[in-house]
Amino acid sequence: MKEFALLFRGGQTPGEPGSDEFNAYMMEWKTWMDALKGDGSFVSGEPLEHSGKIVSGAEGNVADMSMDNEAQIVGGYIFIKADGMDQATEAAKGSPLLKVGGNVEVRGIMEMKM
Fold it and tell me: Is 92 among the domain residues?
């Protein structure tokens, strides 16, 4: 089996933390993640904080991340094991983020041999 990264972008979390709507959405995430764990495909994953820094250029320029385009910011990730890209993509289709306007980028993890 090969490892894949599922990168979560965009979407609007429903309700305020603690509300019934928010709690129901979080339960959808738990159910989906439990299914991935149950079939042995889940490796690891976490949500990411909204703030951060961007380091660029040979000089190591540092800038605060802009929330101007939230749809492009990676809000979290999970690593899964799958037999191939098609299976990993099918797993990504179960993400609750898709129901709230977000997207899931599926990327294979390259094996580095040094």
Answer: yes
Domain that includes residue 32, residue range: 2-108
Is residue 2 a contact partner of residue 109, using CB atoms and an 8 Å limit?
A: yes
Whether 113 is in a domain gets the answer no
DSSP 110: P
pLDDT in tens, the chain (114 residues): 999 999 999 898 899 999 999 999 999 999 999 999 999 999 999 999 888 898 999 999 998 887 666 667 899 999 999 999 999 999 999 999 999 999 999 999 998 898
Helix (H) or strand (E) holding 89: helix 85-92
CA atoms lying within 13 Å on the CB side of residue 25? 17
| CATH number of 6's domain | 3.30.70.1060
- Indicate the number of domains in the chain: 1
Asked if 80 contacts 94 with a C-beta cutoff of 8 angstroms, the reply is: no
pTM over 0.70: yes
